[in-house]
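*** Query protein ***
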Amino acid sequence: MRQGGAGNRWRPVQAAVTLQRLYLALVLLCLLFGWPHAVAAQEGPPPLRDYAIDVWTSRNGLPHNSLRDIAQTPEGHLWFATWEGLVRYNGLDFTVFDRSTRLGLRDNGVGALFVDRDGGLWISDSRGNVTRRSADGRWQVFAHQPPAPQVLIQAMQLDSHGRLWLLYEGNGIGSVTREGHFEYEKPPADVPMAMSFTKLVVDAQDRVWVGTLDGLVVRGSDGVLRRALESYGLGHGLVWPYRAPDGVLWIVAGERIYRMQDGVPQLQHRLAPGMHITSMLQDRHGDLWLGTENQGLLRLSRHGPERLPAGLSLPGGRVVSLREDAEGSIWVGANGGLYRLRETLFSSFTERDGLSGDYVRTVLEDRDRQLWVGSASGLDRRDAQGVFHPVPLRNSGGKTPSVLSLAQDHAGGLWVGTFGDGILRLDGQGGMLRSYGVEDGLPGGNIRAMSVDRDGTVWAGTQKGVARLDADGVTVPAVPGMPTGLVTALAHDVEGDLWIGTIEGIRVLRGDHVQSIDLAPLGGGRSVFGFQQIGDAMWISSDRGLYRYQDGMLSRVGLEQGMPVDTVFQLVPDRIGNVWISSNRGVLRTDMTMLNDVADGRARRVEVEHYNEIDGMANSQANGSSGPSAILRQDGTFWVVTAGGLSTVDPLRLQRFRERLAPPAAIETVLVDGVPLHWQGANPHTLPGGRRLSISYVGLSYLMSERIRYRTRLEGLDRAWIERGQQRSVEFIGLPPGDYTLHVSAAHPGGTWGDSEAVWSFTVEPLLWQRRSVQFICGLLLLAGLVALYRYLIKRYKASNLRLARKVDEATRDLKAQTASLQALNEEKTQLAERLAVQAEQFERQAREDALTGLPNRRAFDEALARDFARSQRSGHPLCLVVLDIDHFKEVNDKHSHSVGDVVLTEVARLIASACRDSDMPARTGGEEFTLLLNDTGLAEAAQVCARLRGLFHDHPDWAGVPGLQVTFSAGLVELDAADRTPMLLYQRADRALYRAKSEGRDRTAIG
């Protein structure tokens, strides 16, 4: 979306793009050749403090908080051994198998887990039983067999001959052969097996190593169980073995860790005295993870000995088991619960790392690569060694000011904007140089943004507009159009113009005039939180997404164009083409090319990756309306302030995370009409037709389990893949008969679809009516029925035709008689209608016409007066009314009879009608009284009509044929004016004028 704007002072686009490409190429060359150590640094794991930790206990679905062992089967499920059953985990849900489940165990107390070469899971319990769950989900129980003790089996290992070795708690070792037979020999009296620990290992020579609380025990190739050689120097305390994934044998003796080399233990690490190591793991990087009795978890890596940061609320007690899953996460089973350490894209710093406060508002890197962090609790400086140092600042009340904004001037001085305490100027090490407040002319309130121009002048955004700080002090620019309210963002562009963000749009100070840019017409933007110039375009972060101002045109990339949130605070491009955007709901990542394509209209939507706490951020709420709220440091890392600390990400690590393999898909359950089906195994599965089939599946990843996307394809029904989003089940009702194969594929958000599909084939049987034989028989029966029906219908048809012919003849005769009767009635009705029409016409005429004179009567006159009165008032055209009365008409009746009087009235009506125009209306309104309604006629013209009519009366000889009879009239004439609010008022005025004419001698017209 684009919108025009005033003012165009940008440089050519092509030059800026070319420079950007050259810069990007230079950076990539430096990465490949100049900075090999930086790339290498990304290959190893991060410091232990940068791992994200997730915790599960019985509150989260575990049946018991003590986890004795952890295993992962090849398809990806994790399995946990607890005292209340076997637990399977798919990244989202815990499934418990115990004595109460249909496919259950002989005992709930699970001692150890072991995954064999075929992917089968071995489970031991507290009563000496062993169970194997095959890769196809079938369970096989190897029940305890005497003389083996009926006690907890603490550990299991398989030798090269397929024999499963078992460690019985306090009772020595035994084994289960390939045929499923238990073999057990009571340990020699001089071997401390009564004090056995929970660790048993089978080495490459099939020797069995057993840990005890009184030294190490070995079953040699000769089959004899004896103490380890004294020459090993391991001692008689807690000593136990561990075999790493690479086959190397390690031995833990107290606080010492040995590695077997050429058959001799070689001391590798010595921990602090009193450290009781209870479990060990060598991860894919070769680092050692150590679980302890009561001191938590340690790691020995290239970063040295590491502990988890203090203050974490982790399950306590002994660390019993450790496991690295297929994605590199470390799972820790303790007596108090389960926790997992996973490497995340983001690293975070909080109060426990030395920050003064977790509510961070601004971050700045100075020219000496020191990092300055402003928060609600003050200002901190991070030195080259990564240590945070609080900067001692105090306001007039002796309290630490809340820091909202930071800037560095050309001399290296640090400027600090605060909430209510003005601006502080510090030296490069945080020493106070000067403060600026209201008494110095600085507008009061908070300082949310600052920017330094090319001349070294500091510009500050306040609650009352923009202030300018230089050697002369504080001034407020008096330029028309400058904002006078809260300023939320400031930035100088390459031309030296000052961009000012407010809660009511943008102002740009260009020399001595101000340009206003209104965001509201394009998407409704108002509040501006940040500016970022990229090439010849200025990108604007607002409460309605991103805006781009380029070549005088305004474009927008917001919610409607694919942005997941409305409000964004700061856009920061990195050196490898990514764009990082902070928001209230986490950090967004896209690329610059895609943003420009959407802004230019070449693409409809932008693709965005969304990061939050699960990716290692201290808090998903990034802070804004302060500045800078996000930066790119000189080493290429992106830093963002949040409501829970300071978070950072190295874009070079992004590809490593994005290249993670897609999660393998696995089918979890199959239900037919709500009943579970054992769907695993090589045997074909046949399902009755017409049933409801429900299939649930999962992507076996433990990093972003709730974000995994799924797609399915049912061969035999679907032509292509159907994307299901995060839906974890699919349902089919009434599938047609046939062979089907369901494919399920999974993908991480933004990742490619996995090749490790879950596949299940099945056949739907036809219903009885769908079988070919049944359909053939039904077809024959139907054909026979149709033939019989046809013959029956033909017979009925012929009989029906005969009955119909008789009925037609009878009906024809009746119709002819009825037709003649109807024709006579119709003629009678026509005549009656004609007579009624004539009579109705006569009645209508009588109702509106004077019977004697043929003129309209009083009713017709009243209707015409009301109509013309309203029309004249609307149009403003003149309207005149004449009311006239025959003079001495009573004498005519008395002298010459009423019949002569009627003739006189008829002749008066004829004269009046002859003097009228087509638009005038004469009427007889009573006895000898007549009216004349003159439309569009002024008073003077109406007076002429009356005079002409009087002349006609005078020129008429011998009225009614009576020699010497003369007839005159008196008239009242009025014209409609504003005082006549109703037709009656107009008529009354004319009537009064009539009486005045009579009183003045008759035979005249009086004007009212």
Q: What stands out?
A: The longest strand covers residues 738-747. The CA atoms of residues 209 and 218 lie 5 Å apart. Confidence is low (pLDDT under 50) at residues 1-42. The longest helix spans residues 772-848.
